[in-house]
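Reviewers of the previous submission asked for a worked example of the structure-prediction workflow described in the proposal, so we include one complete record here. The input consisted solely of the amino acid sequence. No template or homolog information was supplied to the procedure at any stage.
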Amino acid sequence: MEEALQTIDIKRFKSQFFSSLATELGDDFFIANFTLERGRSILKHPCRLDGYVALLCLKGQMDVAINLNSFTVEENTLIVNVPGNIFRIANITSDEDVQVFIVAMSKEFVSGIRLDFNKMFNESMSLLSNPCIRLEEKEINIFKQYLHLATDVLSSDLDRKKDIVGAMVSSVFYMFGSIWASRLSMARQSSKTPSVRANLIFDQFLKLVTEFHDRERGVGFYADKLCLSPKYLSKLVKNISGRSAPDWIDAFVILEAKNMLKYSDAPIKEIVFKLNFPNQSVFYKFFKSRTGMTPSEYRNS
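From that input alone, the workflow returned the following structure tokens.
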């Protein structure tokens, strides 16, 4: 039986989309330059990526969802995903195919670099209204040079490739840390302090919902975790996203339920138990009111 909201590690991610790669370090690291064709589904269904993925769009435009929050990735735009996020490449919105550079790293590989990737990128991205960073031409050129050098190293007969590439990745982290700091500085200058804080709280709220939605559906639980009143949290979430806090919580629950129904053999009564519903009747009403279908109808659709 597969898990709901399938977790895809770097090994599985690589094997699912690339038949062979010379630019790789086993299951810990790989680089790929590939084209997403219009009409072709890739990561069509949301999943948890258990690794670090940097995606640089070189041509075209597409929608990407992270923790059910949608962002538009355009030409010369970089987006970074960290482990645990619910990730989906939704659809291509340009009239042309999308060309992307992808760099994917396992948690073990990143921990060996001795840099706090989460602190450098994940926390700072929450302060930006959009985590998609549009790079300037000179930044793109530097990034491409790193990628080409890493590709040459991985394709060579050199010893200690992992150490060499690790040092290069560390250098890239510092470069993009500088870019992120610059974007943050501009964001703070163009935004009032409460708005920056509100964005951070909203991001923390989504992270908590990602972790606890299968157990807790009350706004009070999340407000307590954030040391806020339920009323204040509800107002903040509505102002930031246009959706209410309960709507966000329900969306994660529905997503989890859909994945269980489609990608596992679990009986519905087991799904009811795993999602912490009091009984099947309550779950059926909840699911149908938000999807227009009963759980059985959705599973068989």
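The mean pLDDT is 81. We consider this example representative of the routine output the project will generate in years two and three.
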